[in-house]
Amino acid sequence: MESEELLLFAADAARMMLENGGETYRAEEIAMRIIASQGGMEPECFATNTGLMLSFAGEDGKVHSVVRRIKHRQMNLEKVSRLAKMAQALATDTMSFDEASSEMDAIERMREHTLSAKVGAGALGAAFFTLLFGGRLLDAGAAVAIGAILELALAAFQRWRLPDFLASLAGGALATLASLAVHYCGLPINTDVTVIGVIMLMVPGVAITNAIRDIIAGDLLAGLARGTDAFLTAAAISSGAGGVMALWRFLLPGVAR
Amino acid sequence: MSTAMLTFFGLLKGPLYAALGTLAISVLFGLCSADALLASCGAALGWTVRQAIPSGASIAFSSFAAAVATGLYSELVARFRHRPATVYMVSGIVPLVPGGGMYYTMLASVEGKTSQSLEIGMTAIMTAFAVATGLAVANTIDKLVLRPLFEGIGRRSPKVDGDRHNHA
Q1: Could you give the number of structural domains in chain A?
Q2: Chain-chain contact of B86 with A77 (C-beta, under 8 angstroms)
Q3: Is a pLDDT exceeding 50 seen at residue A15?
Q4: Among A76, A87, A123, B106, which lies 20 to 30 A Cα-Cα from A172?
Q5: Pick from A176, A189, A241: nearest CA to B117
Q6: Do residues A139 and A197 lie in contact, with contact meaning Cβ atoms separated by under 8 Å?
């Protein structure tokens, strides 16, 4: 097998791991494991959540290296677990390189859940979190509608390639605006609980989890970058919500709840 | 229904809602059905622990304990399912993330109650750190205690570091 082919394959596996919400150390590990399994020598990988560098020495002693930037991040844990499984199978020789290549293609082309499934999940998730944080059935009912709208909006933001920060900002604003509007229309919902239930769909749980796992694994830089990601997302969501609240109070001072 | 039974079902409500909410979140994260169900069981476990901590303790502490429980559960399930532990952790801790804290911080600051806003904000940040620390503790316990115990069962992990030096 060509060294270049191996290099690009390993780099793509690591890139997909990072793009879909895998931990940084795991991305580095699968790249190095794939290369070592095919006889590459001295594999080294350095990854953060915005890019990775990978190099190894081929059998001829030449050093091969490649850089991959990561621009778009989304969540697909199913892809993460299939990638990890694939690298494991390669490393333990239960899968040939050709099989692994076609598995990679399959993972890359894997369908996401349909938009309607996502909207449904968003609606139910918002409702149950509203109930969890002390909402009544009426609040949960409002959260169903608002959660569905939010999930539709987030899908649209993703299609327009809106930066993550702006998407979270707009999402927080939308959730708050919709709750306040429902309350304004006369439905006596508790807007606080409803907004909290809905914004739980966007909270940076992933970034918090992976930041700490990266730091524990010794990837301090990657951990800090992810921590920043978590902090910025949280700041964006609450600024969106706060901005709308302030504007609402300013425009409709009499009806502020 | 007796009051004791009512209280009992009242206690079940929290974990149930946490599980169902997490199930929905897992779908958004692209998990398949069995993994989504397992992740939501982790969330229910975490929320049970959080409820079980006496109300005298701070939110940060109960979230810490809950995160340890969810983290350990995720590491265990990951071992038996041959999947990375993050898969279960990421969705399992979502109910513990201080979304409410974020919101009330903003609300207080919009209402001009700056000191109250700072206080709530600090609690929210503390809670987020507590969740993160809880996961770290769970990870360490897994490495030091559970992994040696379960040696041979589940995930076999050839050490990449070792390979690297052997080939060189």
Answers
A1: 2
A2: yes
A3: yes
A4: A76
A5: A241
A6: yes
